[in-house]
Amino acid sequence: MEKSMASQDIAAALERVESILRNQPEAGRGDDAPATARWQGGLRVQTAHANGTAVVTDMPPQFGGTGDQVSPGWLVRAGAASCIASRIAMSAASEGIELTELEVVARSLSDARGIFGMSDAAGAPICAGPLNVRLHVRIAARGTAPEQLQSLVERCHRCSPVSAALTDPIPVELHIDARSI
């Protein structure tokens, strides 16, 4: 199957990185780009990347926000959907699969009582995060059997960094610099 130029470029880049990581495993570890969130007043927060990209969030009106921006929870779903879509596109390029359609919809179920630190009827604390995340992947490719595409998606889900962050417990360190003015 002939690869498109973009797919060839992606595949070549991935081959280079994988070769480096096989020969120098320590090269795979490094700090990720920080996300710096700054309160803008009310419940509006602007989060910026070092490259200047910024996104503004606000809470829905029922929580006291304006609802005119996406919520931080939506960014988690957006990250999950975008990450697995990127991972699928990477593997498809590497394997010579010519995608004709790729869409990932991320949904979740949450219990708003968790954000207030409330407990359920049995006294157990309610999770402040999503109770589940559901990813729906729509994928199509020329000359590729649905079973092969399903296997591709499942493999990519296991290797998606954001999916891993949502499914595997990871330590979170909290450092506080509090001051009185």
Q: Main sheet: which strands, in order across?
A: 1-2-3
Assign the CATH architecture of the domain at 5-21 and 71-115 and 123-167: 2-Layer Sandwich
- Overall spatial form: globular
**For the CA atoms, what is the radius of gyration?**
20 Å
Number of helices: 4
Q: Write the CATH homologous superfamily of the domain at 5-21 and 71-115 and 123-167.
A: K homology (KH) domain
Order of helices and strands: HEEEHEEHH
Task: Kindly describe this structure.
It is globular and about 55 Å long. The model has no long low-confidence stretch (mean pLDDT 94). Helix 1 packs across helix 2 and helix 2 crosses helix 3 (146-159). The termini are far apart. The protein has helices at 5-23, 72-95, 146-159, 161-167; strands at residues 36-41, 44-48, 54-57, 99-109, 132-141. With 181 residues, it is an alpha+beta fold. The strands form two sheets. Strands 1-2-3 form a three-stranded antiparallel sheet, with no helix packed on it. The protein has a domain at 5-21 and 71-115 and 123-167: 2-Layer Sandwich (GMP Synthetase, Chain A, domain 3), CATH 3.30.300.20. The chain has four helices and five strands, in the order αβββαββαα. Helices cover 35% and strands 20% of the residues.
